[in-house]
Each structure stands twice: as C-alpha cells, then as structure tokens.
C-alpha cells in the first residue's frame, strides 16, 4: 500500500512552461534523476508522477512507457485542466478570472477516461491514484472501476465538507460487499 510517497508534479497549469516537462525525453530524464537521488536515501519512498488531463493518447502512451522503463511506483491521474469548454459560467466572467486550472465536476469524465486508458495500456502494471471530480462514493467507485488503485479528493471536500470522506468510505464498503 502507498502510505507515504513522493510526487513529481509536472502538470500544474499555473507554473509557466512546467507542462513542457511532460514530453517524453525531458520527463524520462527528470524521473531517472529523481529515482537515482531517491535510491541513495537510507529510506527511499515510492515515486509517483502526477499528470494533466489535457494529454493526448500518444502522450499517455509515452507515460506508460516511461513509468515502466524508469520503475517509478505509479501515476496520479489527474491534475486540473486547461479546458474550459464544459463550464457554464459566462465567457466574460471566465476571462476576468484569468488563467489557471479548472477542477471539480467538469474534470470527472476526462480524468476517468485517462485512468481507464492508462490501466488498459499498462495491463494494470502500476498503481494509479484517481483524482478529479470526486463528490460522492459513486464518483470514487467509478474511478476504481476504471482502474484506479486509490482515490484522492480535493474539490469535493471544499463543496461537500469533511463528511464526504465518511460517505465515500461507507459507499466503498457497500460496493465491496463488506
């Protein structure tokens, strides 16, 4: 089980040029350097890669290959998106808010698609932590059914409150038939 881990987050849309590191060669070099440094530690930690939901299937194929080649522990799918097409907020309001990533419900479908894609392409060879649009036990179960090993909740906590964790746990226990 992944209790403590180190995240290489090259997916933040708020850091200029950071997402360029998701390209195959720079990403592979970065992960190899982090893994080498981690291996020198007396007590190393699993390394996970956090990716953007805006990657193409070709880029996702590269991610699978890189994870398998470097031997890092897994992937966190996904961070916030640059895609604002699903927002119902007026275009003027969106423009006045400015640049930055979008999270929450609008991210749910794409995040789940990426989890499913990575899981299928990798043959389930590495853990995937599912993130994006989890506001209920049903949302968490959807990520798990797509191939996630674990889930993380962010925006759901803001909008649903801390009781969301208990509701998700209860739903997962029912789902697993416990």
Automatic annotation (TrEMBL):
Gene Ontology molecular functions: dihydroorotate dehydrogenase (quinone) activity
Cofactor(s) the protein needs: FMN
GO BP annotations, alphabetical order: 'de novo' pyrimidine nucleobase biosynthetic process; pyrimidine ribonucleotide biosynthetic process
Name of the protein this chain belongs to: Dihydroorotate dehydrogenase (quinone), mitochondrial
Family membership noted in the UniProt record: Belongs to the dihydroorotate dehydrogenase family. Type 2 subfamily.
Domain of life: Eukaryota
Pfam families: DHO_dh
Pathway where it operates: Pyrimidine metabolism; UMP biosynthesis via de novo pathway; orotate from (S)-dihydroorotate (quinone route): step 1/1
Key word Flavoprotein present: yes
UniProt EC number: 1.3.5.2
First-listed, main subcellular location of the protein, grouped into a coarse class: membrane
Sequence ranges assigned to domain Dihydroorotate dehydrogenase catalytic in this UniProt record: 3-174
Catalyzed reactions: (S)-dihydroorotate + a quinone = orotate + a quinol
UniProt keyword Cell cycle, yes or no: no
Enzyme class: oxidoreductase
